[in-house]
Design a protein that fits this description.
Strand content of chain A: under 5%
Number of helices of chain A: 6
Pfam families (chains A, B): FTCD_C
GO molecular function (chains A, B): catalytic activity
Largest sheet of chain A: none
Radius of gyration of chain A: 19 Å
CATH class of chain A: Mainly Alpha
CATH topology of chain A: Four Helix Bundle (Hemerythrin (Met), subunit A)
Organism (chains A, B): Acetomicrobium thermoterrenum DSM 13490
Number of strands of chain A: 0
Keywords (chains A, B): Coiled coil
Structural class of chain A: mainly alpha
Protein name (chains A, B): Formimidoyltetrahydrofolate cyclodeaminase
Helix content of chain A: over 70%
Shape of chain A: elongated
Largest interface: A-B, 55 and 55 residues
Oligomer: homodimer
Amino acid sequence: MSMKEMSLRSFLVELASDSPAPGGGSVAAFDGAMGASLVSMVARLTVGKEKYKEHQAIMEELMKDCDKMRDEFLDLMDKDSNAFNDFMKAMRLPKNTEEEKKERTFAMQEALKKAALVPMETLRRCLDLAKKAEIAVERGNVNAVTDAGTALLLASSSAKAASYNVLINLKSIKDEGFANQLKSEVESLLKAIDDTVLRGLKSLEENL
Amino acid sequence: MSMKEMSLRSFLVELASDSPAPGGGSVAAFDGAMGASLVSMVARLTVGKEKYKEHQAIMEELMKDCDKMRDEFLDLMDKDSNAFNDFMKAMRLPKNTEEEKKERTFAMQEALKKAALVPMETLRRCLDLAKKAEIAVERGNVNAVTDAGTALLLASSSAKAASYNVLINLKSIKDEGFANQLKSEVESLLKAIDDTVLRGLKSLEENL
């Protein structure tokens, strides 16, 4: 069953169970999905209001983009769990002969790459989320400004959690070119997200 | 229906809708619930392992405490939405006579206090979550260290989001004694949570 069909409570019970997946990677993706939903909500509470007439077009765009983003984050929840389970499968491959050992190592390395690329995808989307949440803070319905601010916080925690999941997998990846490329992308994304989030929160906190 | 029985997807659709509740306050509580679940998971992946024998007792305690904490955070999700809806109800009270106006103002002030006290409760629990997540980072199964780190990140984003929801309500509360007391509790809790989270993340990031 896709996680998105689970109840909030069942999901948490599954999360807390002694199976390592779902874990932090899926949680990161769900944080992103909640953030995108909050931006959609703020946009919905802004469109059609005379006071925010000048932001009408951008709010309609936010609504549409963030509804789509929410579904993409939700898909990443499942993808993250599946990537982890594929790695566990590769680890359980037979290793009796030299041939088998080689095949197992190859399968494990491929699975590790996938397990790094899924949270990388989450992280990339967090930058988009942070930018959109900043717009919601700046131009959205002022009555919902703390909701837009919460979306900024989620972009930040989701990004950080996703980065941990990329980096922990990179530690076991032998392909240095692959690892270095991802590592430098992680760094520049975290920096860009941090800048956006801090700017947005500053503007919010001045009004609290 | 309690939110905890909703599917992840339905919850997000409801969150993104143009009704202001559920909003950031419920999201803050759910972040706390995910954090508590991750600490439970790390503890479960630690108990019974020879390598972590010396931490057995504390991990069993973490497991029990965090399962309970998860349910408390889940209840706070509903409480937050209900508090907001109660405030909307108070706002819709009649205000035709002086008597009615007085009653409406009183009801609104009481509802605002409740709407500030619920996220305050979330915030208080976040300090407990941060402390437990730090233990999970330091002494839990090293294979799940990024999950424990994610719990720290969630304690931080949940706390910050909850604080916004306290502060925004305090702005309309006339009872200065009440407002000042909560404001100073918010400040000291955020400081204590920040210290704990930064310490835990530092220890985690050194190993990434």
